What does this fold into?
Amino acid sequence: MYVDVKGYEGPLDLLLDLARKQKVDLANISVLALAEQYLSFIDTIRERRIEVAADYLVMAAWLTFLKSRLMVPHEDDNDEPTGEEMAALLQFRLKRLEAMRDAAEKLINRPQLNREIFARGDPESVVTDRKNIWEATYFDLLRAYAVQRERQIPAEYAPKSRTVWSLQDAEDILRRLIGEGADWVPLHACLSQYLDLPEERITALASSFTASLEMVRQGQLELRQSKVFGPLMVRRKSVE
Amino acid sequence: MDQNTGQVIDDDNDIGEITGRNLRVLEALLFAAKEPLHLEEAKPFLSDGANIEDLAAQLSEKYKHSGVNLVKRGEAYAFRTAEDLGFLLRREETERKPLSRAALEIMAIIAYHQPVTRSEIEEVRGVATSKGTLDVLMEAGWVRMRGRRRTPGRPVTYGTTPEFLDHFGLEAITDLPGLNELKGTGLLSANLPPDFAVPAPNDGDLFDNEDPLDADDDGDDLLTELSQDDFDH
Amino acid sequence: MDQNTGQVIDDDNDIGEITGRNLRVLEALLFAAKEPLHLEEAKPFLSDGANIEDLAAQLSEKYKHSGVNLVKRGEAYAFRTAEDLGFLLRREETERKPLSRAALEIMAIIAYHQPVTRSEIEEVRGVATSKGTLDVLMEAGWVRMRGRRRTPGRPVTYGTTPEFLDHFGLEAITDLPGLNELKGTGLLSANLPPDFAVPAPNDGDLFDNEDPLDADDDGDDLLTELSQDDFDH
It folds into this structure.
């Protein structure tokens, strides 16, 4: 036998090949003969100093044990498998491997996709339309309008400036109106000529009141109010 | 097999069977082809002397009412989804996006000042208007081209659509607030020049100085087109 | 339309028309796709309450004698050229290298024994399995990692994919050739001696003794990983 061990896919493959050479159904195979063939095969290649992979040697050891069990039955030992059980096991493994090989063969001989059977060659793909939904609120819209219309108002336009009495103005006016008189006078009475002008009324009142407080602080005026919301009385403070 | 051969009127049963087989083969070839199939390419697969044109016509007929049809593309044939089922192959993906400030401003001007031309929009805004922004507003369905102003250059006039009213919850374009209402809500300041006016918007019929758009008017600037033409000659 | 609805027995003409339309829609969707289509995916396009299984059965029947057949692949359906035309249409595959004998054998063992671990594959073949061969099968898209067996070392379990069914023209994994015979002889048992309960291959849900794979599980051997770790520290 000059078969290179490298041609086999493991010891089981080698055993299956040897078994097939017996040309009988695996069920009727002589396991003893098979074991002997395997062992002599391994011996041959070892004699030829070809390195043998470990699993082949493990199988050889197991088959040697099987052979001894088949030839010398050990009836006393219940834990160990009998030679017949070991032989059945080997037969099962060989049959299973062969069955898987047959199955692979059947599978690969089926009509295959892209070989005998074809899918749609030019599938029609789904086209996705992207669509934007624009979001804007009514308020955004109105504000956008107002903002840009105002932006476009010519810069030279100057709004009418309001009449404002500064504190200094108010103080000067107050001093002039009260004059040298030392009698109590209602504040609004001495301002009456200004309070009739609607655009000056508020600023006249507010500024002269604030100015009067300042003048009180400086010791130039005296203020008096006899009841809540009553008229505010004012007079020049007499110089000591 | 009788289903196919039944359509074929043949005295001889054998010929019917051969035609049936040719039909099946052609059908499979057309289905598997990566691009529209020239009938010539099917020839090696069919029986000698098969009338390919006739086979293709029979297949077209067979698929006429199906979800897929056999259609002719130039000199070649292909299976294609029936036209009325084209929607099956289209998906819509929508994305919500806020309108840009520029778009909002242009939208607002169009709403108040319509019918308004692009250069009038620019006058109000003081900046140039990109065509893209107008396109966005038209894509949104809020702005439409109304017509062309009967002035030199015949510029397109823009206006709002019913969808605009719908989106902003207006019953009519006249519901847009006027000058006093805008002042009242504080959107416009109280101090405006005396000649400051907010127009009364009108989204209705064409004005006297507007011409309707032709059906094939794509809104391009006529002056631009003209200069393009000049350039070509 | 009568061609389609003619097959449907309906008292009501409207129902017949709706069914006819559903048939056309399903036909178009299945025709347009290259990969098998899950009927669920067609649901949004059909009328409410349409019996999809029944529609698929009607389509199968309609195409039974055509050059193109509607076939079932696992849970999905696809149009494929008729199997009996294979000898005519046959082309040698150019993209894929033919599988090695070992790879073919391993594929068969995985198909018939799934879910199966690498050591069980080795037990059947009596020889070590190179990781590369498994990778070739996974790259072809025929084999997948299913999970991890809940046993010491938590080995990866392998099984076949839907593409495997499609490639080899199987309706279900139970249609594997010669499966019943193999079950009868007890040769599908991974354990020795043969079990009395003969397992059947299953490419579906995880078994009780299988854990799902983590999303980032690359299928490496856990023991190997451990020793790698040990080595690093």
Observations:
- Chain B touches chain A through 54 residues (CB under 8 Å).
- The beta strands of chain B are 37-38, 68-73, 76-81, 90-98, 116-117, 143-149, 156-160, 210-212.
- DSSP finds ten helices and eight strands in chain B.
- The mean pLDDT of chain B is 84.
